[in-house]
Amino acid sequence: MFTFCIRPVWLTRFANISQKMGVFMTFSKSLSAVRLALSSVVLFAAVAAQANTLPPNNLGRQDHLFGANGTEAEFNQVIDEVIAEYQPIVKAHGATLTIERLWKDTTVNASASQTGNEWQLHMYGGLFRRPEMNHDGFAAVVCHELGHHLGGFPVKVRFGSTSWAADEGEADYFATQVCLKRIWNNDLANNAAAAKTAPKAVINGCNAAYSNKGQRDLCYRIANAGLPLAQLLATLNGTDPKALDVTKTDKAVVSSTFQDHPQAQCRLDTYFQGAICGANFDPNVIPGKGNPKGDNSLEAEQVSAHYSCTKSGNFKAGLRPTCWFKPRM
Q1: The pTM is what?
Q2: More reliable by pLDDT, 238 or 251
Q3: Tally of structural domains, the chain
Q4: Phi, psi for 120 (deg, rounded to 5)
């Protein structure tokens, strides 16, 4: 037996509306889920893109032991000296340089990040107060973070693509090859004083690289500035900071360029090689950035060779150490 029933028009319309609303609600939930997923990816990418001077560590727990090691005014003075020189350079690249001065933060690190055209440095009081650190060493850290923004090739790879940030080794190399030379070039008295504390190997290396007394003094000072950070990394790794020596070069040879933090001796080697590199760096160029073949391509490396010391450029000193860098030319 079949029952035939006529459905009222209002009920049919209500059912159609309900069905559409159900579809819309399902679509809205799906869209919200997509947005949430994309937000998570963007947030993760932003965190991953941040470049740090040191590996993550717990040295900040010791900060209460070193509270009297430097003042906030000194902390800001070192930062200001570097930033005054580099803010116009960053502006010329179409970006704004901002500094987060975290004096009270016990974190023993420093970092760089980019959000659109805002290029940031994050500087922590915990690093400045470390007993291994001094003013020149901290200036080298500020320069290292600038190197992530301005050093160019080779750059970090994240999520299968090249990022904005220069490799850790390249940021070290930029700090001494470019940045410290720029900010201390006219500080003749303090540069000359560095000769009194520079190790003999540093004096010999700088004297071989430069014939001018002013350039030699600057080289001594820059080479000395790399030691505090290398010693701090040795402390972090549980090795003897006193064992570090520019004459004891890291003999490792990488099969491909290492993107993250090299070992302490390798970093000290990089600081010294940057100091004795006589190649001229053009501040209007971020070497290799935006290269059509890719920021880590051979073509990008060829561009970078115009602004750094390489064997292909007939330099015998000042080369990036092979304990982190693999040259292809």
Answers
A1: 0.84
A2: 251
A3: 1
A4: -115, 145
